[in-house]
Design a protein that fits this description.
By secondary structure, the chain is of the alpha/beta class. The chain has 26 helices and 16 strands.
Length: about 775
């Protein structure tokens, strides 16, 4: 059986006993002793329920349970003193009533402490003033009314008992009306029911005393039932799934705050009316009226004090609020400013290249769109100029990205100094720039701007003790003549730029429709070049080299040819630039070197090998590292004698890190391999590498000999180069000899070797064997 059912059963039994004792007490002989016994058991049970309910409860619940337990103990002592002490003993007669008042105060203090947790000191003061005003009014009227019905004042003190219960109920009612209740509603409901039973018991007791007799024992069980109900409420639990019932009428705490003063002031008016018009000579009513007026004045004073306090607090709060609002406004303003700056920074980063700080491709496309819209209105043209820095990748590979980056920055600086102030300059790619020129009516205006850009790079760049000379390739596309969309305009400018790179450096090319077909062919060739490397479609031709004095064969230079399965032979000038641009030159070099070494060893076994084999190495080979190890591995594989091999490097290799390059060349030379500088005078010409590098030979390029002996400047130049070479103990080979006059001139200036079409074009293996290698062997045999 649950504790709730036990409580209900006990309550039912007590009600039956109360009815029996109230109606048949004269018949029951020992009813008084039985009543006090039951009352005592109820108090013990109440204390047990309080302990059980508060032991696992909250701190607030424990406080009110403690005061309730103290109140039950005090009222129990009062009733036991009253029952076992003779009425004649006057000193003890008043003690039970004092204890009963203490019992009421303990309950009131417990509820007031609970209420203080959810209400301020001012609000609690209002409550106490309102409580005492109401009790003074009702008590005075109640006391006077009781006197009118009773001839003597034998039981006059009993009139205070209902007022005590009303005192506690007043506080409890306030606690029930607050929204933020500190304890659960079932406990409050139990307290309400229990206190109501106690108040009913006291009222019935007073009514029963109107005939001049008082039988307290008749109502002791009912009062004990009320205290038991109060104690048992602490063990009740709130149902978790309890359905919310619709309330027809509810009073909130705010409503009660309005109603309560109205009731009090109405009570004061009633009290004044009773004193003035009915009981003018009643001292109790007069004292009650005076006390009530004092309490009302005190309450109003507290109201004034609180209002002043609220005004001060409101003023302080407003000041703090204004300060907080000001601070928050400044914070929001700063945040908004920071946010704007952040958005501007994000937008800047999204539209600019982080390295060069120039507008990027996205910004370029937007600018082209804006400029083309303007051009439609004023019927002008927009020129898109694409600029490519030739061989920048090679510079990065040879001298390092740090120098390459610094070179880019200096190029940009020269561009910005040369271009008009409002000209839009963007970085389109790693080594590509773009200029958007609007308001164009004549192509000559664009040509002039492009030529100004070419002029900016004529002066060499000096970066970290290195002299760098660069060239530009410029492609131009016009809107609306060449393109009507942004995509086509950029595509056509790109095509024109690549056309400029193919034709020659420092070239300006305007887009023409024929370039579309060239682009398709270029992409097809690139795809086929990849396949050619995989299928080894390359063959090696050999350029004979001759001793200028006796005309004998002094060596052969291995040159690559692409034998396409459909197109036939493809010129090196057509696919070598493509291979260099798309990093395919190294595998082609490796194919040529291995093929040439293998063929040389075949000739050696046949006894017809030329005196020397020359092979070309691209600059990227030195950037790869361990070139000496690769050459040694290849020579060991075929048993090739190192002193028979000459590697030819271009002047652009000299732009590599000098210390690293010198170490690589010396390691190669230490193996016995010969080293030659190819195409001397066409690239990065410097006397320092001629002096410092372990060179054996210097090859003069064809442009220096073309106009000899007609051009005196070319004659002087060739003589100077040969003299310089001899000064450094280098042999000289002149390329591109095509006439007898050129040959005679070279003999006169003591050149050692020559090659060119005057003697022979590059030959296949079969042709060079038949024309030069086999006759040499036969001549030796006949001799």
């Amino acid at each position: 059986m649950t504790s709730t059912r036990i409580q209900s059963l006990i309550s039912a039994i007590l009600l039956i006993l109360f009815i029996l004792f109230a109606n048949y007490q004269p018949i029951l002989v020992d009813a008084n002793h039985l009543t006090i016994f039951i009352f005592g058991m109820l108090m013990v049970a109440s204390l047990w329920f309080l302990y059980k309910g508060a032991h696992f409860g909250t701190r607030v619940k424990k406080i009110i349970a403690l005061y309730t337990a103290a109140s039950i103990i005090v009222v129990s002592i009062a009733e036991f003193i009253r029952f076992f002490t003779p009425v004649e003993e006057g000193d003890l007669r008043i003690l039970p009533d004092i204890l009963w008042i203490a019992h009421i105060l303990l309950l009131s203090i417990g509820l007031a402490l609970v209420l203080k947790r959810v209400r301020s000191n001012f609000q609690l003061s209002y409550l106490l003033f309102d409580l005492h005003i109401s009790l003074t009014v009702f008590g005075s009227i109640w006391f006077v009314t009781y006197q009118n019905y009773v001839d003597n004042d034998q039981f006059l003190f009993e009139t205070i008992y209902p007022l005590g219960a009303l005192y506690v109920l007043f506080i409890l009612g306030t606690l029930l009306l607050v929204i933020d209740k500190p304890i659960k509603r079932p406990v409050l409901n139990g307290l309400l029911v229990g206190l109501s039973i106690c108040a009913l018991s006291n009222v019935l007791l007073v009514i029963d005393s109107l005939d001049g007799t008082l039988f307290r024992e008749k109502y002791l069980i009912l009062y004990g039932l009320g205290m038991f109900t109060i104690a048992s409420s602490f063990t009740k639990k709130e149902a978790s799934n309890r359905k919310k019932q619709k309330k027809l009428f509810t009073i909130s705490y705010s409503h009660w705050e309005i109603i309560r003063p109205v009731i009090q002031y109405a009570g004061v008016l009633i009290l004044v009316y009773e004193f003035v018009f009915k009981y003018r000579n009643n001292d109790v009513l007069f004292v009650g009226m005076i006390v009530t007026i004092i309490l009302v004045i005190g309450r109003d004073l507290i109201t004034v004090i609180q209002n002043q306090s609220l005004v001060r607090r409101l003023k302080i709060f407003n000041q703090q609020l204004e300060k907080k609002i000001g601070e928050r406004t400044r914070e929001l303003t700063d945040s908004h400013r920071d946010l704007e700056n952040a958005f501007k920074q994000i937008e800047y980063i999204a539209r600019h290249d982080t390295f060069s700080r120039l507008p990027n491709r996205r910004y370029l496309e937007q600018m082209i769109e804006w400029k083309t819209l303007d051009a439609v209105q004023d019927r002008s043209m927009v020129a898109l100029v694409f600029i490519d820095v030739d061989r920048l990748k090679h510079i990065n590979d040879t001298v390092g990205h740090a120098i390459g980056d610094q070179l880019l920055l200096e190029i940009i600086e020269r561009f910005q100094q040369k271009l008009p102030k409002d000209t839009f300059l963007a970085r389109h790619g790693g080594d590509e720039f773009a200029v958007v020129l609007d308001g164009v009516y004549y192509e000559d205006d664009v040509v002039k701007l492009a030529q100004d850009l070419l002029d900016t790079v004529e002066t060499p760049f000096y970066i970290q003790d290195k002299e760098l000379t660069i060239t530009l390739s410029i492609g131009i596309s016009l809107y609306p003549d060449n393109s009507e969309s942004i995509e086509d305009l950029m595509k056509h400018a790109d095509l024109a730029m690549y056309k400029a790179k193919e034709e020659r450096q420092n070239k300006i090319v305007f887009y023409s429709p024929e370039m579309d077909e060239e682009l398709v062919g270029r992409m097809e060739l690139l795809s086929e070049l990849h396949s050619a490397i995989k299928r080894n479609e390359f063959i090696v031709y050999y350029q004979p080299q001759f001793d200028i004095h006796d005309g004998r064969l002094s060596g052969v230079e291995a040159l690559v040819r692409w034998q396409h399965p459909v197109r036939g032979f493809i010129s090196p000038g057509e696919f070598i630039p493509l291979a260099e641009e798309f990093d395919l030159i190294i595998p082609i070099d490796e194919i040529v070197i291995e093929t040439a070494i293998a063929q040389f060893m075949k000739w050696t076994k046949q006894g017809i090998a030329p005196p020397r084999l020359s092979v070309n190495l691209c600059p990227q080979q030195f950037s790869e590292g361990d070139l000496a190890g690769k050459l040694k591995g290849l020579m060991d594989q075929y048993g090739f004698p190192p002193q028979k091999l000459m590697i030819e490097i271009t002047e652009s290799v000299a732009m590599n890190d000098e210390a690293i390059l010198t170490a690589q060349l010396r390691e190669i030379a230490k193996m016995g391999v010969l080293i030659a500088i190819d195409d001397f005078g066409t690239g990065y010409s410097s006397l320092s590498y001629v002096k410092n590098y372990p060179l054996n030979q210097l090859k003069i390029a064809r442009p220096f000999i073309m106009d000899v002996p007609k051009s005196q400047s070319d004659i002087a130049m060739v003589k100077a180069i040969i003299d310089l070479s001899h000064h450094f103990h280098l042999t000289v080979v002149v390329e591109g000899v095509e006439t007898l006059e050129q040959l005679n001139f070279l003999k006169s200036v003591h050149c050692e070797e020559v090659q060119g079409f005057y003697f022979a074009k590059p030959l296949s293996v079969q042709d060079i064997e038949e024309r030069y290698l086999l006759p040499v062997k036969e001549g030796t045999s006949n001799g």
